[in-house]
Amino acid sequence: MNGGADAMTLRKRLLFAVGLLAVLITVSVTGYRVLGGSSVTFLQALYMAVITLAGVGYGEIVDTSHNAALRVFNIGIVLFGVAITVYVFSVVAAFLVEVEVTNPFWRRRMQKRIDELRDHFIVCGLGDTGRHAVAELQKTGTPHVVVDISEEKIKKLRELHPESLSDVLYVAGDATEEEVLEKAGLERARGLITVLPNDKDNLVVTVVVRQHFPKMRIVTRSADHKFAERMMRAGANATVSPSQIGGLRMASELIRPHVVGFLDLMLKEKGSTLRVEEIEVHASSAWAGVALHDLNLKGRYNLLVLGLKKPRETEGPELVANPPDNSVVPGQGVIIAMGDLKDIQRARSDALA
Length: 353
What we know:
353 residues, alpha/beta, Helix Hairpins
């Protein structure tokens, strides 16, 4: 990673820019005093140099109307001053962005925020797939931490989604190293997505996490079908192949375009937070043992029930699609419903009460 070299180059450019500005101010002050005569004080010359370089448009404190040499000199200062000032501001802006990322205090503050997270998700890798995963987590208000070895990808992510991803929590480092995952709050996380470019690295992350956290949900990216099987054996709960998903999407666009359009409306519309979500019902929940028609999810929360997932030990099918209203919600069951995220959150809160 060449982040250190880039930072050093930027610092040299900043010093060079400041040096240029200092030289120009020195030349300006000297010229105004020499060409303006003995009546021009140092403070007047400095003031004249500052307002000329800044282009604020104040009146000339050093009169150039009767001195051709001084007026020509002032024209040169204006021309050189504009160019150098623009260059200085551009370098300073780039330096401030760099400081925002590398400043130790800023990093400690971010790490403190990460340390306060509980039941969050970790996303390892910020490639094409990872960026879309992070954008969805951010849009749905799901707490998460990004892990990537390249800070340049973090900057690119913020540039692509400035309105929603300007405050991404992240750890810069190799996700295959356990210490890096620990900085991301692995021991307090609810789940992990690993979408590193190399299948072997995704396999390593899966093995490392599963060894220490047997109950954590792990979703991995896999380009090779053989690696997908290995990842499942290593402990991944699910594997996703971008090429397979892409192929299914293209076929769906062909044979069921209106369905795809409806799903896109949920995921791609900036103002839309319509989602298909799940509501967990614990054994101690007031919802456990209650029929769907008594819960009245449509009337109370404007939610459409799509499915009911029952514990494996119960009789009958584990997943019931479009369940009838008299279906009883079992303890440790899951209601799959479609609705606005705010309504989903209200229903989840009531289910936990």
